[in-house]
Every structure is written in C-alpha cells, then in structure tokens.
Write the structure tokens for this entry.
Amino acid sequence: MEGSATKTASSLLPPRAESWFAAQLRNIAPFVTLIFLVALFSIASPSFATLDNLNNILQQISVTGIMAVGLTFVILTAEIDLSVASVANATGVVVAFFTAQDSSVNIANVPLPGWAAIVIAVASSAALGAVTAVGMTIIGIPSFIMTLAMLQIGAGICALLVRGQIAYAVPKLIATLGNGSLGPVPWIIIVAALVLAAAHVVLTYTRFGRYVYMVGGNREAAEYSGVNVRAILAAVMIISALCSGLAGMLGVAHFGSAQQDEFDNYLLDSISAVVVGGTSLFGGQGGIGNTIVGLLVLGVLNNGLDHVNIDSFLKILIRGLILLAALIVNVYAQRLRSRRRAAAS
Amino acid sequence: MQAPTPLLQLTGIEKRFGGVVALRGVDFRLHAGEIHGLAGENGAGKSTLMKIIAGVHTDYSGRMELEGRPVRFRSARDALAAGIGMVHQELSIVPELTVAENVLLGAQPTNKLGFVDWRRMMTEAGEHLQSLGISVDVRAPIGALPLGLQQMIEIARVIFSGARIIILDEPTSALSPPEIERLFELLRQLRAQGRSMIFISHFLDDILRICDAVTVFRNGQKVASSAAAIDKMWIIDHMIGAGHQELEESYLGEFQLKSRTEAPVVLEAEDLCLRGAFEDVGLRVHAGEVLGLYGFMGSGQLELTRSLFGKLPPERGRVRIMGKEVRITSTAVAKRAGLAFLPESRRSMLFALEPVYRNISISILERLSRLWVKPATERALAHEQVSALRIRPPNVDLPVGTLSGGNQQKVALARWLTHLPHVLLLNEPTRGMDVGAKEDVVRIVRDLSARGVGVLVASTEPETVLALADRILVMKKGRIVHEFAGEAVSKDRLLAAA
C-alpha cells in the first residue's frame, strides 16, 4: 500500500528516537558539518590542525562573531537585520573620525579624548538601532526593508565622514582590544568570547531572553499573553546595532584602517553564521550555541580552503553552496517539526 | 433511493495521527443525487474522513471506490480532477479579486497572446452563476459581498472546476436564516442535476431539513447510518451514546438565566466603536458574572473582546476596569489593568514547540522574576494548574503542540489562573473540543466566576453561550440588539434574536 511505503523511511527509527532526531536535526547537522570539515582539512593539509592556525581561525571569526550575536537576537524573533555590516562600518569610521589622525591623513576630523570618541561611537550605533526600532515598531516598516534603508544610511555616514580617504588611528583602548594580546591570546578573541557568553546568559536565563524566544515562537500568542512585543523587537534591534558597533570599532583597529566599504563581506558572513548554525529563520528556535558552531563552520571553511590551495574564485562558490545546504537543512528541520506537530494535534 | 452501485464507497478506512487512532474501520457510501449529512461531536472523525475523500490526507489504510473503480488520491488536486471538491468552513476565496476571477480562479480564459481575456471571463462567470440561480455583479470584489453569497460563489467555483461530489464543511454555521434558505435552494437544485453532496454540520436541524441520508460518527467510528426518516433524538442518541444528560439538555432544553446581579461592576464599556467591526457598544460585566456575547459569524462579538484586550484598540469610547477609566492601547496595558484574554484559535495563543510550563508561565513572568527566569518555580506553578485542570498527560515539560486540542485549550486557560484577572475575555472557549473537555472548561469558568472573576464569553455557537452564561447579549452587525436576563432561553430564541 502506498500509504505505508511513504512511512518506511522514518519508521526505521523507533518513534522516540525519531522525534528526538526531528527536534535535534537543526543542532546536529551543523555540528556534523564542522567535524567533517575539520577532519577533511586536517587530512588534506599538515598546516591546518595546529595551535597557531586555531588562533588564526578564532581571530578571523571574532569580528563576525560579535556581529552575529546581535543578529542571533534578531533572527530568534523572526526578523532580519541587513544593516549589521553597514552599522559596524559607520561606527568604526565614527570612532576614527573623533580621534587625532596623522598629519598625512586628509580628513576634516574632530579630535577628542579617546573615551569621548568611544562614547560618541557607541551612542551613534545605538542611535542607528533606535531609528530602525522606531521604523519597525512605531511606523510599521518590515525589518527587511527598514534595515535595507539603514544599510544605505550607514554607508552614507561612512562616505560623508571619510570622503574617500582612509583613517588609521583609533583610541588606545580600542587599538588594544582590536589588535593587542593578553599573553598569547589576542584580546579580540577574548572580547568575542565574552560577548557570546553574555548573550548566551541573557537569552537562556533572563526574562528578556525568554520573551525573545516566545516572540519568535509565536508573535501573536506572545501579544495575547500580554507581552509587550514591540518593546522586545525594539530592544532586539538596538542590541543588534550595539553589537555591530562594537564589532566595527574592534574591526577597524584589527584591520588597522577605517574606510568606506570595509565590512562589505560581513553582512553575508554573519547571517550565514547564524543560519548555518541552525537558528531557525522562522524564529524561536536556536541560540548562541548554534551561532558558535556556525561561526566555526564558516571560519574553518574559509581558513581551510586557504590551506588546501584551491582557486580563490572557486572559494566564493563553495561558500555559497555551503550556505544553500544549511538553508535546506534549516527549512527541512522546520517542516519535520511542524509535520510532527500537525500529526500530534 | 438505494442505487445498485454507490457513487462513492469507502470500506474499512483506518487513519492514525502518530499513535492516535482517528478513524477505525469506517465504511461510508454516497449515492448519486444524494445529500448526505454527517453528524458527530468534534473529534469524532468526520473531518478526517472528508479530508481522506478530498485527497488531503493520503496515508490511510482501507479502500475507496468511485463508481465501482478503486481510487487513491495523492492530492486535493487529484481528487478534484476525479470530481470531488470540498468547500471548507474558512472559505478559500481571494477577497480582493472580483467575483468572476474567484469563480474561474486558476482557469481564467486567455486570448491568443496569453493574456487574461477579461470580457470572456466576465461572461463565462456570469453565465455559470446565472445557471445556478446566483445573481450577483461579477465585477464586484468578492470580499465586499455578504458571507452567504461568498460561500455560494465558492460552491459555484467548485462545481465549475468539475466537481460531482461536493463536500460542505459546516456551511450554515456563519449564515443567517434567510441565507441558509438560499443555500438550501442551491443545494436542492444541484441535487436535481444529479450531483451529490456531503453535508457536515453541528446544526442537526439543518441536517434534518436538507439531507436524504445521515451518518453519525463517534470516537473515530461510524455508529449509525440511515436513509429512512429519522429525528433529532435519533442523531443525538447515536452521537453521544447514553448517559450524557448534560449535553443532551444543551441541545434541546431551555436554560434559566440569572437576573442582573447587584455585584460591583468590574468591566464597563461605553460607546465603543471600531470601524468595520462594531459600533456604539456599551456593556457591563459584574464581579462573578458570566456574560455571554452571541451573534452569527461577523457580528462583531469576537472582534469586540479582542479589541477590549488591546489588539486593534477601539477608535472611540470609554473603558472602565474596577471603576477606573483605562485607555487600552496595547495588550500589555490591558493585562496590567487586570484583563485576560483567550482568542478563538489555539494556534494564535500557544507556543507549540515550547514546553507546557513555559506556555503557562508566560503571562506571569514579570511577577515571578525581575531579571532571571526561575524555571523551578515556573514548573511548580504549572504542576499545580496541570493537576487542578486535569491536563493530560500531566507532564509540564512536553511541548504543548503534542497535547490534544482540549488539553491545549486548558493550558491556555491555565495561563490566566495563577494570578486571577479582574475580567476574563473568552472567544469560542469550547470550539473543536470533545464532550469531556467541554465539560471541564465549563467547570473551570464556573469556578472562576465563583471566585469573583467577571467573565465575558463571545461565541458564534449558541450551545457555548447557553452552557456558560448567566446573562446574554446578542450582537448583530456590530451592534448589541438584545439582552436576555432572568428568563428561560432556548437555542431557538437565541437564534431568532440574532
């Protein structure tokens, strides 16, 4: 009978294991991918599995990681923030703009004490996030379009401030955190780890974190439970902008320059990290743990491809394919769960 | 009537959802030119069987024969191609499109260049509707028409796409008596053309008026089928089995309402207005009183409670809670003022993937914690509610989506019971529930009102309002048109007032 034939594939597992598998698919798949990639590159290249290279990988994913933290909050509420890289760039440029530059730098900047430059930069990223929040929650613009506009606005701020020039100096604190080391460990890795850890604590153990998941899980139900959904969404957009701002300041210090279009790759990277890690694009499922795995997958992939001597143009295609595979798993996992839910009701 | 080969015959149909058996060993026959009524409590298996016939559910065991030939549909499209169409309770029309576009949806005539041939579409749709005796402007957007007409147009569409068997799911539940009359006229005409219809309904009087044969379901089994003349008692007896005195009364009996209470007013609304939903609504809910709001679908009672809770706040009017005027601008404000609300659809009030305890604690989280969540306390509170409300299975860590409908409803109710609100607003609190769960919900609401909570129950089902309310307001086209208090009222009188 056809009906029973369609069931055989899933019936290979006992029902309990099957449901566990369905629930965990989005968590297992990225982890398996990571292990597979690490094994693959370790075999393919002797220079891959070294402590030095681990340090490299972690440094390479730190800036993306801080940005991805904010995005995780946003995506958990089933919204999206396309302005993360742009806000990061703007904040990095702002902090440099208010720092004394070398005389060779031809920018009409406003030198201020380091702490003041940092406060202004943080405040401007928060302000950009607040504008997004107002656009979304009060005016009612969908996040996709609203943050697309903010992407342009961020790029505009960068363009106006640096006018095609490059600034190099940033406040000392930022320079240390972005480019210095604590013993053998670069500060930027420590900062990224702290931000990830703090975000995990907020999402898992605080009331606000619970609301983030609930709003993403079922916005209507959250509203009917008396949750102030708009406040949660506004907070999440501001958190995202603040994370981007921090990533931008440290990134500028890490790369040693502040200029236009510096972070262009980071939008795709940070979204990829969150989604590859298994956080649901439909909201409510996933978290920082997933984002960490996603970051490592991307980091290992980018770094590993450098070790195995692959056509650098092919690398771009491979990354695209990995992202596609992750999206397929993401959507498939969602469908598996909702089918089980439908069957149960 | 009894033709040698039935048009449609199902034998030994069995269907499971996970571990739950929804249908066991069901036989069903439908003859050409027959209107066949299906009765049964919610969850008895009627809809499941219809979805199998209409190609929605594909993994079942058993045999289906259409005109003596075995068939097995792989999709609803498959079923429609074989001549079986379904008209769901929630119509699948596109409100923004014209009547003609809706009738010919997916089959619009095109000209040589492949563009839609508007003139032909209008004439074809017009002629088709005319032939069914439906006179309507085919250029009008369908959303602007009365619901009864929309439904008839949807039936026309199903027929236009070639259906000989039309499954109607609760076609009369949202209609006014004259609209029902027109619908029945159409159904009789279709029967005269030799088409067959399956008529699923909770309204036994409607079934008895229009159907040639009746099949009754209970607990996933067909318990009786008759083509002979039958009466309401026969259906009810088979539907509920023996011993459900309470339910039986709810179908037939009169209900004695209480007179207006002297208890303090907990919720007072004056002159409330929301364009397109309700107008000039004024009402008072007293402490410990269950006030029923009854009306046909689209009369505004469901919108009114939703609006009172701050989802689409009223455009005009005043609301006082415990004597204090409150401007309700959002659900968060409404909750803080002491209101609680359960919407009519479970999907919009539960977090299906989250465990039971989080679904219960969500509305009291700010009382439990300032910063950190306290899962242990949440679980303990949830446990109390789960045992008090007899939620099955009694495991607060299960995702709520795995519970049955009635238990899900109880979980949603439990959300508002750990800290009692002043006023509980309920939309369709017992829709889609089995008898036992219904009785539990009635008991819970009674218990709440005994503890001084004012309850406002909005429903389109007379049984629900009658079973729960102390006093009843009837709404019609967004206005309150009648009040029943301190008198005996039956379903008939209630329907007549709406």
Observations:
- Chain B touches chain A through 47 residues (CB under 8 Å).
- The domain at 255-497 of chain B is CATH 3.40.50.300 (Rossmann fold).
- DSSP finds 18 helices and 22 strands in chain B.
- The CA atoms of residues 241 and 432 of chain B lie 19 Å apart.
